[in-house]
Amino acid sequence: TRNMGAKAFKAWDDRYLVAEEGHLYTHAIKDNTAWFHIEEHDSKSRVSIKTHQGHYVAVDSLGQIYIRNNHDSDEAKFQLEHHADGKVALKSHHGGYLHVNEVGKVGVHHQLNDHCLFKELGEIA
């Protein structure tokens, strides 16, 4: 496992992906809950997304997002896809993308669209 550093993910609606109290959602302010440590696992660009509390974002076979204590399961691994304009998509092990809908709710969408793209910001951004 290689640590790729702390990253924040800014959604299409200029809100930040955040993790708090076992949930993933968006927030207008980039505070400590908006920083994730990205851990690379292999040459296939599979990564784990570690929250500021040391837990991992995961997606189950039903497309439900949950937070787990470790990254041992493939459900806690994502394909980090790079797209135009410095944006990335996070594709789950089961094929769905992390997605922010029109009201700011984070979910999983099985077709890549603009709501699945995030601007990836490093620690100094």
Overview of the structural elements:
The chain is mainly beta and 125 residues long. 0% of the residues lie in helices and 48% in strands. The protein has a six-stranded antiparallel barrel. Strands 2-3 form a two-stranded antiparallel ribbon.
Short summary:
This protein has strands spanning 2-10, 16-20, 23-27, 36-40, 46-50, 56-59, 65-68, 78-82, 87-92, 97-100, 106-109, 118-121. The protein has 125 residues and is mostly beta strands. The strands form four sheets. A six-stranded antiparallel β-barrel has the order 1-4-5-8-9-12. A two-stranded antiparallel sheet has the order 2-3.
Average pLDDT works out at: 91
Instruction: Please identify the structural class as seen in this structure.
Output: mainly beta
How large is the radius of gyration?
13 Å
Strand order of the largest sheet: 1-4-5-8-9-12
Helix content: under 10%
Q: What is the straight-line distance between the termini? A: 24 Å
Choose one word for the global shape.
globular
* Uncertain segments: none
Helix and strand string, N-terminal first?
Answer: EEEEEEEEEEEE
Write the layout of secondary structure elements.
Blueprint: E1 2-10, E2 16-20, E3 23-27, E4 36-40, E5 46-50, E6 56-59, E7 65-68, E8 78-82, E9 87-92, E10 97-100, E11 106-109, E12 118-121
Antiparallel strand pairs: 1-4, 1-12, 2-3, 4-5, 5-8, 6-7, 8-9, 9-12, 10-11
Distinctive features:
125 residues, mainly beta, 6-stranded antiparallel beta barrel, two-stranded antiparallel ribbon, 12 strands, 48% strand
